[in-house]
Amino acid sequence: MNLRPRFPLRPALYWPFSSFYLFYFGSIGILFPYWGLYMQSLGFPPRQIGGLIAVLFVTKVIAPNVWSWWADRHSGWIGMVRSGSILSAVIFAGLYFSPGYFSGQGLFWWFVLIFALFGFFWNSILPQLEAITLNHLGENTHRYGQIRLWGSVGFILAVLLFGQLLDRYDVGLVPHGMLVFLIAIGLSTLLISDHPDDAVVRQPQPIGPVLKQPRVLALLTACFLMQLGHGPFYTFYTIYLREYSYDNALISQLWALGVVAEVMIFIIMPSLSKWFGLRNLFLSSFALAGVRWLLVAWLPTYLWVQVFAQLLHAATFGIFHAAAILFVHRFFVGSHQARGQGLYGSIGFGAGGAAGAFASGLLWSSTGGGVTYVAAAVVSILAFWVVWRWVRP
User: Do 387 and 286 meet the contact criterion of CB atoms below 8 Å apart?
Assistant: First the structure.
């Protein structure tokens, strides 16, 4: 596999961008597969696990919009990225200083406080970096996936490494691994520079006319529904498989397999877009999401079925994300670029992720994992209809 860039982005810029994605999504490769397991080891029930992850997503609703609004009106976006990276690492380290007398509800609320502050800064940095990346690519935005794939590589390395470590050592390693990756994110931002077009003070432009377009409203709604449907996966998939006697190493391999498929899609996404069209690919991601969650719900004991379901991550995240990023870049232009990426992150991954984590925690507690994944499939099909009806280039 040749991962070298084939577009006009100098290696001096390509590798710093790639490093950021590697470490940022590496931290996600620890957080989503294993944080629920870590909290379960501390005695937290599913409702509190889902609630804490929901807090992280709620901050994603607020933070990208606040930081994007500020960045679009002041000189440069990379300063925001660096500040957010450093502050997120410092605040996350607060978990190491939880008061010794905290236990039960007290410890849970300490976690909530840390995650709320940490999430406000951690969730602010990716939309700014996405805008910088796309501006550096210029007319080659279809090559975005060839940089973004390094995030998938980071996720794979992190999830496999920790799958092996947690089979040998205590699950208490999870917060240590997160902190290491957060520090690495901060260091990688020191090597990235703004695009010349980013380093100017922008005159505020009203975003209302853009948001009133039916295609824009439909795009943001579909992104919200897609992440709502992913809620049970990101919050409880590891716990779900543990209920069916999968060990940590096998679970980590399943997580990694999905992201390997995602990497392959990012590599060939320019060709796929040329052959099938961006809208058709976008539609396929929602249809296959419905299939994926039904397979997880109905056939959890069949390893080969779970392997196939994880391969569908190539569509439900890889194709979906690459297409959504490009739609946002086309619909939000000029001074609206960072805010467009911020809205995509906050409404989709933020509001959708928060609602998905919280709702799946409630549904899981009352009906179990199977029904929860069926509900996720229904949501995905609803999102397919929204895109089919309104989202057009």
Answer: yes
